[in-house]
Design a protein that fits this description.
The chain is α+β, with helices and mostly antiparallel strands and 228 residues long. It is built from two helices and 15 strands. It starts with a helix and ends with a strand.
Length: 228
């Protein structure tokens, strides 16, 4: 009778000890399956570097015509917007962002002709770009777990009153840095947007043809994101 009682007690203790252990194993398995990809929504501000729009122009001097290069150098500007992520696999996610760029202007720089001819050509004018909005949807992969660095790429669509490049392609790197506030991260990003120029009224007082590109439009941004 005593042996049966002791055996019953041991089995009961073993089952009680195994139950939490099983729960811990299931929780660890679920955590590993979830991976570092998380849903998030955030806001950001940033700095878009200046860039150059290449164009070829023709000047008529007397009875002849001279073709030369007239590049339009646009100024840098500040940007702001919103972004978000949606996981599609443990280490892969969809990234989306919307960015506003204020108006920026630029001056021409002429080349490809001799100094005497350049003196006869009015190498002046004004290039106006923006204000523009840029929408982006891409797919990315996360390289780290404790400090997730995401490399991503995808298409962009630019809309605005004076945008020469409607469609583009963007490559980027995003780093989420944990903060003391639960659920919030500091999001740092570097982006390289490829722009393919086309002819429209984006260039003011420019008689010429825009080169096709692409151009590299670089931007750095920082913001705060919430990950539930």
């Amino acid at each position: 009778m005593r042996r049966s009682s002791v055996l019953t007690s041991l089995l009961a203790m073993a089952s009680v000890g195994a139950f939490p252990a099983g729960l811990g194993g299931q929780a660890a398995g679920a955590s590993a399956a979830d991976g570092p990809a998380r849903r998030s929504v955030g806001v950001f501000g940033g700095y878009a570097f200046g860039y150059t729009i290449p164009s070829r122009s023709i000047a008529f001097l007397g009875e002849g015509a001279v073709q030369f290069q007239r590049d339009w150098r646009l100024d840098a500007r500040g940007v702001f917007g919103v972004d978000g992520t949606l996981p599609i696999a443990p280490r892969f996610l969809v990234l989306a962002s919307w960015r506003f760029e204020p108006e920026t202007t630029g001056a021409p720089e002429c080349s490809g002709i001799d100094v005497e001819t350049l003196a006869l050509i009015a190498c002046d004018g004004l290039a106006i770009q923006g204000p523009n909005t840029i929408g982006y949807v891409g797919v990315g992969g996360i390289l780290g777990r404790r400090l997730p660095l995401t490399l991503h790429a995808g298409p962009t669509v630019t809309t605005g009153a004076t945008s020469a490049s409607r469609l583009g392609l963007m490559f980027g790197a995003t780093l989420d840095v944990p903060t003391p506030r639960a659920g919030f991260v500091l999001r740092l990003a570097a982006e390289d947007r490829l722009a393919f120029w086309r002819n429209d009224d984006s260039i003011v007082d420019a008689s010429g043809t825009l080169d096709g590109g692409p151009n590299h439009l670089l931007a750095l941004r920082a913001g705060v994101a919430f990950r539930p």
